[in-house]
Amino acid sequence: MPDQLTPQQLDAINALSAEARYDEFVSQVVEWKAVWSLSSEQGWAVISDDGDEYLPVWQHADLAALWATGGYSDCQPKQIPLSDWLTKWLPGMDEDGMYISVCPDIEGEGVVVSAAELLEDINNSQGK
């Protein structure tokens, strides 16, 4: 995983459609072996919308950092090892009925999926 994304790389990723960002997320987390979200002293950042809760995730800290503004200004990007994401996080989120907002752009647009669906897509990408 590159230590930093250039401004051009950030712009290029954010210019992609939500579906294309989802595909990039799946392939890059498999390659880079990590998922990123936002965390503060109060815990993980969660998006609430019409009674549903979503955990926003990205494939790189720099993408997550773009969201650390406004209501999330107290948050910092935090890495979740892919092995933990696959064996602990996604199964637990599936049990809790929590959804994932994958690589939302700065306007908040991202693909929202169930934990089971994301687990299946990542496993398929790994050839499992």
Low confidence ranges: none
Distance between the termini: 22 Å
Number of helical segments? 5
Gyration radius from CA atoms, angstroms: 14 Å
CATH superfamily: Uncharacterised protein PF11572, DUF3234
Would you spell out the secondary-structure blueprint of this structure?
Layout: H1 7-15, H2 18-32, E1 34-40, E2 43-44, E3 47-49, E4 52-57, H3 61-65, E5 76-81, H4 82-96, E6 99-102, E7 111-114, H5 115-125
Parallel strand pairs: 4-6
Antiparallel strand pairs: 1-2, 1-5, 3-4, 6-7
What features would you describe in this structure?
With 128 residues, the protein is of the alpha+beta class. The protein has a single domain (7-125), classed as Uncharacterised protein PF11572, DUF3234 (Trna Endonuclease, Chain: A, domain 1), CATH 3.40.1350. The protein has five helices and seven strands; from the N terminus they run ααββββαβαββα. A hairpin with a 2-residue loop joins strand 3 and strand 4. The protein starts with 6 loop residues before the first helix and ends with a helix.
